[in-house]
Design brief:
Blueprint lengths: L6 E3 L11 H9 L4 E4 L1 E3 L5 E3 L28 H4 L20 H11 L2 E4 L8 H12 L7 E5 L2 H10 L4 E4 L5 H10 L5 E2 L1
Parallel strand pairs: 1-2, 2-5, 5-6, 6-7, 7-8
Antiparallel strand pairs: 3-4
Length: 193
């Protein structure tokens, strides 16, 4: 069955700083069906929402200075990341936007009754990080409001097992043999290819 849904990529990232609550709120207000976002792991075992491998393009120090060397979310604690500004790069009106933490995103999803789809970058986490990431959702009963994008069979199987009610999104190869495997692993889940 085909169904067309409007997806806000990194939130409404054309007009708002991507992967921030300003962009997510705009998606709610503009009537989007689903928000795509990108998780990263922190040094102290939390998960934040950031697209790039580095903080450099969208993050700013408290004095709004850009970074002079490559900095990674994985090298910072959550508390350290929360001191940075992730809105000023997009414009003065967004100064002060903080990086969203996964628990805050889950609360936002529930409050606003909007679906979120997590990009397949979670598959690049260590095995322990992947497990903790999926476990963070398991107790919340988000059902099909939660989407997990996968590009590997291992990730797809892990998400299918740990999140039995989540929607699965396949972003890998699309030859007939692969899609047959995907359908088998994702059986019982809503599936988007």
């Amino acid at each position: 069955m085909q169904k067309i849904r409007l997806e806000a990529h990194r939130g409404v990232s054309t007009d708002f700083p991507e992967n921030t609550f300003a962009a997510f709120q705009a998606a709610v207000e503009q009537g989007y069906d689903i928000v795509e976002l990108d998780p990263k792991a922190t040094a102290d075992g939390h998960y934040v929402i950031l697209h790039d491998r580095t903080l450099n393009r969208t993050g700013r120090r408290p004095g709004l200075e850009a970074f002079d060397k490559e900095l990674f979310a994985a090298d910072f604690t959550l508390a350290e990341l929360k001191t940075l500004d992730f809105g000023a790069w997009k414009g003065e009106a967004f100064k002060g936007e903080k990086i969203p933490e996964l628990g805050e995103v889950i609360a936002f999803m529930r409050k606003n009754d909007i679906a979120f789809k997590f990009d397949n970058v979670w598959e690049s986490f260590t095995d322990g990080q992947k497990t903790r990431f999926l476990d963070a959702f398991a107790a919340h009963g988000l059902g099909t409001k939660l989407g997990m994008t996968c590009r590997t069979m291992e990730g797809l199987a892990m998400a299918a097992r740990r999140l039995p009610d989540a929607e699965l999104h396949w972003d890998g190869a699309n030859d007939d043999s692969t899609l047959e495997q995907v359908a088998k692993i994702a059986s019982g889940h809503p599936l988007t290819v």
